[in-house]
Amino acid sequence: MVHQKHVIGNLENHRTIPSSLILYKKVEKKRKIENPYIILKKSKRKEYYMPEYLETARNAGWIFGLVCYAVYAISLYVIGKKANIKNVWVAFIPFVQYVVLLNIIDKSGWNIFLLFIPILNIILSIIWIVKFYLAFSVHPALIVVSIIIPVVGIVMMLVIAFSSSYEYSGSTRFTA
């Protein structure tokens, strides 16, 4: 699509045209070859194409990721309120939201910087998630399944947040 400027009235020769009087009309540019692919990158040698169905899948991935983030943040906020943690609003800030999880398992928020160390971050994440689930008395089989399948972990966070059967049984020095 190419954008063409159209001017209302006899203002074509006028030097200063108010931007509210300029209309943009979409005009389709004809291609030599009709192709159902979207051009990703043009270079002098080759053109790279992505099929439209992959473009749609990429957009769906972004939407799925945003929904998972929103569900995780809301459930972590409610869990933090349930555990009476101070500064629970931090649950809505990406990456910093793990401070709430660390405070629930009685770890300092500064431990978040240990997640920048390769391999150690995977080990610590698993240990911290197990401690988190044990603080709410979750069955060990559910802990294993939620670590192996991340979507189950998000569902477990929702269940812990909004179910009355899971109460916080741990103790922490970060209470409000």
Could you give a short description of this structure?
The protein is α+β, with helices and mostly antiparallel strands. It contains five helices and four strands, in the order ββββααααα.
How far apart are the first and last residues' alpha carbons, in Å?
56 Å
- Which strand order does the major sheet show? 1-2
The assigned structural class equals: alpha+beta
Total helical elements: 5
What does this structure look like?
This protein is an alpha+beta fold and 176 residues long. It folds into two domains: 2-53, no CATH class; 59-162, no CATH class. The protein has helices spanning 52-82, 98-104, 120-135, 140-148, 150-162, and strands spanning 2-7, 22-27, 37-42, 47-51. Strand 3 and strand 4 form a beta hairpin. It starts with a strand and ends in a 14-residue tail after the last helix.
Helix/strand layout:
Layout lengths: L1 E6 L14 E6 L9 E6 L4 E5 H31 L15 H7 L15 H16 L4 H9 L1 H13 L14
Antiparallel strand pairs: 1-2, 3-4
Helix pairs in contact: 1-5, 4-5
Throw out a few tags for this protein.
single chain; 176 residues; alpha+beta; 2 domains; two-stranded antiparallel ribbon; 13% strand
